[in-house]
Amino acid sequence: MFTVVDGDRVERIDARPGPGGRPFAPLDRPLLGWERKPHGWCRDDACLPAARAAAIETPDGVDVAAFAELTGHVAVVDAAERALALAAAAPRLTVAEAPDFELDGVRLADFRGRKVALVFWASWCGCRYDLPAWEERHAALRDHGFTVVSVACDRSAGDARPWIEEANATHPALVDTEGVVAELYNVINVPTVVWIDEEGRIARPQDTQTATDLFRSMNGLDSQESYAALRRWVVDGDAGLDRAQVREHLRVPTAEEQRARAHARLAVWLAREGRDEAARRHVAEAAALAPHDVAIRRGLMPLTGDDPFGDAYFALRDELEKAGIPIYRPLPTRPGTSV
């Protein structure tokens, strides 16, 4: 048996190690929600033609990792732990339509007709102190057809809940324990804010915004400037970027970033299972693939016994600064201005 970790879904499949330790599953059983039929592998109305699947079907069965990649995923295999993790090979992220999601019983589509600020934060980041200020912005602007939806990038809901309760949040305050929404929006650090207009289009892509000036000496960000920009968008309809600029600044994930997310996903599952040494291997693999992804690297620090507020974080900052990799990525506030 192998375990497949795919976002918020963990599935045990009947598979055995084949060449290179890769899992091979029987041809006559469903696999990852797909079923083999005479004309190919099918799930609902989608079918993978038999001719395309033929190369991964062997006397040992079907190569599970290769099958996952044919169905639009990247796959990371840990043969020793009998586990593999998946991430989307090419998440759907365009300016035309913000990816929908459902988390904690809330769907993004529920807010169609209102402007939405998706606010990504985490308990392991100083941006946790901004949550009450985001609640204040939500309260001040909601009568103008605006909603804050905060998304905590925490691996445990228990880590985020005290900060949500302290903020007395009346806005939808969600916890993305499996990193599903962060993956959809290619969030590589927090705080990151995405603006979504009434028609469900991205009006402002991944932007480093703060709601207080607590850490202005470190990040150089002006919370009042970001609030003024938010008001202009909500009240006057001026997002500060034209559509061409939105398209230019939208960060679409690379294959390496997605493979790093699969490694991170596997690391978290292994740690939850008490397999700490194996988890550390995948933490290191994720960092090697996406060294710039602070959300992954800092978010996984507790798995290796490091303090995300301590020396390990400042060592990460020094590493990125020496490599010329920006930690914060604010966008221009007015059309025609530069970052």
What does this structure look like?
The chain has 3 domains: 2-88, no CATH class; 102-249, 3-Layer(aba) Sandwich (Glutaredoxin); 255-308. The protein has helices at residues 50-53, 64-70, 131-141, 157-166, 180-184, 216-219, 223-236, 243-249, 255-272, 276-289, 294-299, 311-322; strands at residues 2-6, 9-13, 16-17, 23-25, 35-37, 40-43, 46-49, 57-58, 61-63, 73-78, 83-88, 102-103, 106-107, 115-121, 146-152, 173-175, 192-196, 202-207. The strands form 5 sheets. The protein has a 5-stranded mixed β-sheet with strand order 16-15-14-17-18. The longest helix has 18 residues, at 255-272. It is α+β, with helices and mostly antiparallel strands. It holds the Pfam family AhpC-TSA. This is Thioredoxin domain-containing protein. Residues 84-267 form the Thioredoxin domain.
